[in-house]
């Protein structure tokens, strides 16, 4: 991206946010903090009313706007690809809003770009695996949670525990919505457990505002939640499993869902190394392949697999 395009992009980025930090701009455009300061100074010298507030960041003075910005074909195509990914949620409020926004994008495209967009539309499709056994989240919940996060209020939830299958009631501080493994979660601070937790949206049975406002500068943030989770992910166990050659094709992409790290071919099959924070679960998964798979290391996971086999033998 040349500097003129970057300066324009920075104005657009600032217009869409209340405050923006130097770190945000540095990471977004792949430039140093010094370059960010130079770019902001250049925009101010050109008459763009950019202000700053200590501890919060930079902002554009209210009332200033660039003329309407046109989308180029690559940007429009990227939005179209996003729409295909969103199709799974087309029946929800967020899905309907995305479709409405995309229609507005179509309406402002120049004739040549519109033709390109329509051809892409006809030749782009997404196939989603539908698991009928999984409950679907309430259509209202996603938008409701967005509003609760904006209101900065404690919410009371009735939630089905994934471990015991029982309903639990909690007062939580909502922090953000996360997409993980094709499921939506609410990241929150649990006031009972006094710790960060993730709650899957399709396990909510009820949810309501409590009227208890959160402070503007809360100690519990999505950034801290993310940092805590990164620390947990760093505590990974390296597990190597051998797979018989005729099993490799059957495994397919499922290996990527279990922490695939690398693999190497051997004379009688494939050795795959996983990095996982759930080694016991990986041991259980390895048993799906019968004598077509064998845990090679570490010893603790090998012993766990043996214990599971013994347990199954005694059970049957």
Automatic annotation (TrEMBL):
<protein>
    <submittedName>
        <fullName>Predicted DNA-binding transcriptional regulator YafY, contains an HTH and WYL domains</fullName>
    </submittedName>
</protein>
<dbReference type="InterPro" id="IPR001034">
    <property type="entry name" value="DeoR_HTH"/>
</dbReference>
<dbReference type="InterPro" id="IPR036388">
    <property type="entry name" value="WH-like_DNA-bd_sf"/>
</dbReference>
<dbReference type="InterPro" id="IPR057727">
    <property type="entry name" value="WCX_dom"/>
</dbReference>
<dbReference type="GO" id="GO:0003700">
    <property type="term" value="F:DNA-binding transcription factor activity"/>
</dbReference>
<feature type="domain" description="HTH deoR-type">
    <location>
        <begin position="3"/>
        <end position="58"/>
    </location>
</feature>
<dbReference type="Pfam" id="PF25583">
    <property type="entry name" value="WCX"/>
</dbReference>
<dbReference type="GO" id="GO:0003677">
    <property type="term" value="F:DNA binding"/>
</dbReference>
<dbReference type="InterPro" id="IPR026881">
    <property type="entry name" value="WYL_dom"/>
</dbReference>
<dbReference type="InterPro" id="IPR036390">
    <property type="entry name" value="WH_DNA-bd_sf"/>
</dbReference>
<dbReference type="Pfam" id="PF13280">
    <property type="entry name" value="WYL"/>
</dbReference>
<keyword id="KW-0804">Transcription</keyword>
<keyword id="KW-0238">DNA-binding</keyword>
<dbReference type="InterPro" id="IPR013196">
    <property type="entry name" value="HTH_11"/>
</dbReference>
<dbReference type="InterPro" id="IPR028349">
    <property type="entry name" value="PafC-like"/>
</dbReference>
<dbReference type="Pfam" id="PF08279">
    <property type="entry name" value="HTH_11"/>
</dbReference>
<keyword id="KW-0805">Transcription regulation</keyword>
<dbReference type="InterPro" id="IPR051534">
    <property type="entry name" value="CBASS_pafABC_assoc_protein"/>
</dbReference>
């Amino acid at each position: 991206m040349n500097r003129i395009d970057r300066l324009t992009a920075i104005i657009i980025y600032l217009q869409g946010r209340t405050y923006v930090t130097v770190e945000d701009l540095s990471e977004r455009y792949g430039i140093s903090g010094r370059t960010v300061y130079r770019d902001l100074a250049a925009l101010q010298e050109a008459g763009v009313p950019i202000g700053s507030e200590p501890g919060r960041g930079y902002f554009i003075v209210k009332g200033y706007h660039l003329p309407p910005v046109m989308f180029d074909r690559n940007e429009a195509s990227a939005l179209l690809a996003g729409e295909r990914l969103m199709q799974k949620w087309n029946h929800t409020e967020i899905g309907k809003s995305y479709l409405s926004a995309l229609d507005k994008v179509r309406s402002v495209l120049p004739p040549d770009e519109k033709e390109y967009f329509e051809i892409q539309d006809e030749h782009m499709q997404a196939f989603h695996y539908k698991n009928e056994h999984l409950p679907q989240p309430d259509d209202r919940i996603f938008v409701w949670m967005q509003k609760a996060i904006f209101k900065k209020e404690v919410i009371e939830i009735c939630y089905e525990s994934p471990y015991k299958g029982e309903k639990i009631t909690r007062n939580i501080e909502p922090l953000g919505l996360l997409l993980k493994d094709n499921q939506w979660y609410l990241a929150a601070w649990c006031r009972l457990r006094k710790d960060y937790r993730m709650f899957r949206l399709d396990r909510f049975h009820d949810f309501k505002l409590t009227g208890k406002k959160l402070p503007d500068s809360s100690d519990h943030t999505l950034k801290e939640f993310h940092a805590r989770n990164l620390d947990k992910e760093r505590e990974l166990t390296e597990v190597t499993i051998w797979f018989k050659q005729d099993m490799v094709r059957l495994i397919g992409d499922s290996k990527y869902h279990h922490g695939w790290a690398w693999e190497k071919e051997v004379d009688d099959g494939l050795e795959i190394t996983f990095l996982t924070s759930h080694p016991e679960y990986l041991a259980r998964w390895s048993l799906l392949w019968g004598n077509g798979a064998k845990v090679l290391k570490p010893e603790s996971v090998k012993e766990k697999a043996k214990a599971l086999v013994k347990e199954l033998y005694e059970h049957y």
